Amino acid sequence: MRIGGFVPCSLNDFPGRIAAVVFTQSCNWRCPYCHNPALVYPEQFTAPIPVADVLARIEARRGKIDGVVVTGGEPTLQPGLAAFLGKVKRLGLATKLDTNGSRPAVVQALLASGLVDLVAMDLKASWARYAVAVGVSTDVAAVQETMAILAASGIPHHFRTTRWPGFSDHDEAEIARLIRGSTHSWQEYRQGPSQA
Ligand code: SF4
């Protein structure tokens, strides 16, 4: 697993928990408003932090944290994600996965294995404008499938949407319709440090 950043203690990223946050490198999307371009564009990647070092730092914080968030980038692209989450769970810590929802099979397998306690999934735009929102042509059916997997899983999850520049009233109305009955939060766009 390629880890590009680590925050040892956050009060904001895992509702109800004090959590470490692990930032994975690489993403299959290119959202023009992305707040973490250094985790998306390979030419901006720093040398990865060894996974063993991150696990050691997490283990050293046991008793001070009760959860670990894995975010990105897009964590489901990482081949070592399940193994990493398994090691975190064996430390007695809860896990949260942040995902863009593009890899339903990975999410399904993680949930079926009991490796994730909470999922936060982005909803970017109305389906017709998804490619505009994510900067590449994309498989909207895969995003829809991930939504359905989460809905059927019984595992706590929530959706979130950033009102990015260009986000339209139609996007907002369609997302409001889609998430009826689900937990969802709106986030306002803020300019990142080196917007691509
Ligand atoms: S899916 Fe997330 S990490 Fe990937 S480019 Fe979009 S905003 Fe950035």
Briefly say what this structure is:
By secondary structure, the protein is α/β, with parallel strands linked by helices. The chain has helices at about 50-60, 80-90, 105-110, 130-135, 140-155, 170-180, and strands spanning about 5-10, 20-25, 65-70, 95-100, 120, 155-165, 185-190. Strand 6 (about 155-165), helix 6 (about 170-180) and strand 7 form a beta-alpha-beta unit.
Average pLDDT rating: 95
Question: What proportion of the residues form beta strands (DSSP E)?
Answer: 15-25%
Termini gap: 24 Å
CATH superfamily: Aldolase class I
Total helix count? 6
Count of domain modules:
1
Spatial strand sequence of the major β-sheet: 1-2-3-4-5-6-7
In this entry the ligands are: iron/sulfur cluster
